[in-house]
Specification:
It is built from 8 helices and 4 strands. By secondary structure, the chain is an alpha+beta fold. It has one domain: CGI121/TPRKB (PF0523-like), CATH 3.30.2380.10. InterPro entries: CGI121/TPRKB, CGI121/TPRKB_sf. It comes from Methanothermobacter wolfeii (Methanobacterium wolfei).
Length: 156
């Protein structure tokens, strides 16, 4: 299994259009709002948990990309996870997660958007508010608090 995380800046003209183009490639490509991701490790952690959930047969969604989104959000409700992490039309900072993809996917993304891994640097105040994080962040930090939520989905 190969998981890659990349940051991009760009304009999405049509969400369905870009998703339709990405479906043509082998593997799983999940584009997320980078502002809602607490860094590269958070994205990798969520993607790994999603893949393992399918291996164990305890996945929440039948779609690997949606499962990645759920795991990164640390929740079981698809509509809420997509509300927090989903891409939208217009200018965006994008976190691209590629699971078992060939280099042609990366080339496609590089041709559509401007590569900028700085978008993966977390805005902790924004994330605290977005996810309703409480006192736990004082002890473990925002990224670890969100990764803990991902891990807890295995237990619940």
């Amino acid at each position: 299994m190969k998981i890659e995380v990349a940051g991009y800046r760009g304009r999405i003209g049509s969400v369905e259009g870009i998703l339709s183009e990405l479906r043509k490639f082998r593997g799983t490509v999940q584009l997320l709002d980078a502002r809602a991701v607490a860094g590269r490790d958070h994205a990798l952690h969520g993607a790994l948990h999603a893949v393992r959930a399918f291996e164990r047969g305890n996945n929440i969604s039948s779609d690997t990309g949606i499962e990645v989104c759920l795991r990164i959000a640390g929740m079981r409700q698809i509509s809420r996870a997509l509300e927090l992490l989903g891409i939208r039309e217009g200018e965006m900072e994008i976190c691209a997660i590629l699971v078992d993809c060939e280099t042609d996917v990366q080339e496609f993304l590089d041709s559509r958007f401007q590569r900028d891994d700085r978008v993966l640097e977390p805005d902790e105040d924004y994330l605290r508010s977005l996810y309703g994080l409480g006192e736990e962040v004082k002890t473990v930090g925002v990224e670890n608090a969100l990764m803990e939520r991902t891990t807890m989905l295995q237990v619940l």
